[in-house]
Amino acid sequence: MGTESLLNEVAAEVRDCVRCPLSRGRTRAVPGEGNPLTDVLLVGEGPGGREDATGRPFVGPAGQLLTELLRALRAEGVEMDARHADAVAGALGNNIRSSIAQIDKASAKELKAGLEEASEGLAG
User: Fold this and answer.
1) This prediction's pTM
2) What is the pLDDT, as a whole number, of residue 53?
3) Residues 6+ apart with CB under 8 A from 113
4) Which helix (H) or strand (E) segment is 86 a member of?
5) pLDDT tens for each residue of 54-89
6) Burial, 120: exposed, middle or buried (Cβ in 10 Å; 0-12, 13-18, 19+)?
7) Are the CB atoms for 65 and 21 separated by under 8 Å?
């Protein structure tokens, strides 16, 4: 399976996931987007209200700052095509510490296995 197909499959799983209480508090899951073959992965703490409303990562105030920083780097000749993802299983939590505690061990194992599989796909 190619990297893009694998990431699309993971995104579909994130959108459909209801394994922990975080899924009850979200409007939309935020699995990530961007170039699937990039060498750079930007991971946020977790989706905020704007990310939750749109289903897209880094569209709130922090994302706007990140966009400005990436623009400034490009203006200086640094080419960067990154993939963006939010941590905490792509779900909005009221408090990041309590949200992390809500993710069960099975989900953490699946996430680790998915990251390992994705990194093997990128290396190959």
Assistant:
1) 0.64
2) 92
3) none
4) strand 82-86
5) 988 888 898 888 888 888 988 888 877 766 665 544
6) exposed
7) no
Q: Which residues contact 57 (CB under 8 A, 6 or more apart)?
A: 30, 32, 33, 44, 47, 51, 63, 84, 85, 86
Q: What does the pLDDT look like over 96-117, one tens digit per residue? A: 444 455 555 545 666 666 666 6
What the block records as the tokens of 75 is: 């203006």
Report d(CA 115, CA 112) in Å as an integer. Answer: 5
CA 105, CA 115: separation in Å to the nearest integer?
15
Q: Which domains does the chain have, with CATH numbers?
A: 3-123 (3.40.470.10)
**What's the Cα-to-Cα distance from 115 to each of 65, 84, 118, rounded to whole Å?**
27, 14, 5
